[in-house]
Amino acid sequence: MKVEIWSDLICPFCYIGKRNFEKALGQFPHKHKVEVIWKSFLLNPDMETNPEKNINQYLAEIKGWTLDHAKNMHEHVTKMADKVGLNYDFDRIIVANSLDAHRLIQLAKTKSKGDEAEESLFKAYFIEGKNIAEHSTLIQMGTDIGLKPDEIREMLAGNAFIDAVRNDVKDAEQKGITGVPFFVINGKHTVNGAEPSGIFLKALNDAWDEEKRL
After folding, report:
1. Chain mean pLDDT for the chain
2. Which of 5, 16, 122, 163 is least enclosed by beta carbons within 10 angstroms?
3. What are phi and psi for residue 165, nearest 5 degrees?
4. pTM listed for this prediction
5. Within the chain, where are the H helices?
């Protein structure tokens, strides 16, 4: 079975959805036969990286909100994250364009390390307050999961994997995917959003049963 997951590293619901899916996968009797493929999605491709601003300040400015209102908007998400064991800190989240981070994931996928890269970058962005657009940060993070630093430097210095990111985005458009996280199981069964783990488990079981009937 194949599970394709479209996500963006700056999407708070994508990390929560990842945790809920992982819980369901852990309960799925045939999990050893499931291939998980991460797909790139760019919620804000034109976002300019600004290490001097956190995401609360950024949203307050572009939305015309007060800073307190921006913080209040994130309280609900923080509580959702806490329920799945994730300690979000929106005051530390650095405004960052996610393109190069997605390129790192695409490189990691060629080494069967896509999930490790996705997890590491989500944690860096939402919990550790790291700048996921900074090349030195990406090189260190890639190295930490077993990628070769010289290979990462070469990738970041050029245009490698930009087409792979764009192809994922185009594929999402063709499938009518307008928001993330979005899960596609065996090309047919879909789960849209950070649904409870039970929804993911049902989708996995339905896809498995259908596969066995064919």
Report:
1. 96
2. 163
3. -65, -45
4. 0.96
5. 12-27, 55-63, 67-83, 99-109, 114-126, 135-144, 149-157, 162-174, 197-213
